[in-house]
Design brief:
The protein is of the alpha+beta class. It contains four helices and five strands, in the order E-H-E-E-H-E-H-H-E.
């Protein structure tokens, strides 16, 4: 019997596509990281421009709550235009940000996403995400972190 080399369990790169369901919610939790974890993302100009892009130009997926850390962002989104996979949408707004905001740095390829199955799962993820700046010692309370917001109303469940 041929031996197979040991392989770590778990993803090393982002999975492609989101398996959408006709019979349930399609809320996606997304994490996107800067290239080499460079800390350029927590910036008021970048926050304003991303918010504007998600609201006005990158509307294939609607963004609910989001939070920017220095080297990554988290957001909740739902499909709005089914012609566009989540990866196409991510690539679009990354490209637009690079062209419209001189303060923007480079991104890692793609993003990591996970479809949430319930309101409770969504609330638990958001509670965890909101604590990121506190855990990193950037603020004392989650409400003090200025690089977060909501683009579209989040009544998705």
């Amino acid at each position: 019997m041929p031996s197979t080399p040991f392989r770590e369990v778990g993803r090393r790169s982002p999975a492609h596509g989101v398996r959408l369901r006709a019979d349930g919610p399609n809320v996606v939790f997304l994490t996107v990281t800067t290239e080499k974890r460079e800390p350029w993302l927590a910036d008021a100009r970048i926050r304003r421009e991303l918010h504007r892009l998600w609201e006005q130009e990158a509307q294939a997926w609607w963004v609910g709550d989001y939070l920017l850390m220095p080297d990554h962002l988290h957001l909740f989104c739902v499909p709005h235009d089914l012609r566009f996979e989540v990866e196409q949408w991510i690539a679009f707004w990354k490209d637009r940000l690079a062209k419209t905001c001189p303060a923007a740095g480079r991104w890692q390829r793609g993003g990591f996403h996970h479809r949430l199955r319930s309101r409770i799962e969504c609330e638990e993820k958001w509670a965890y995400v909101r604590e990121n700046p506190v855990r990193k010692g950037l603020v004392a309370r989650p409400d003090e972190w200025p690089y977060q917001g909501r683009v579209h109303p989040a009544g998705w469940f």
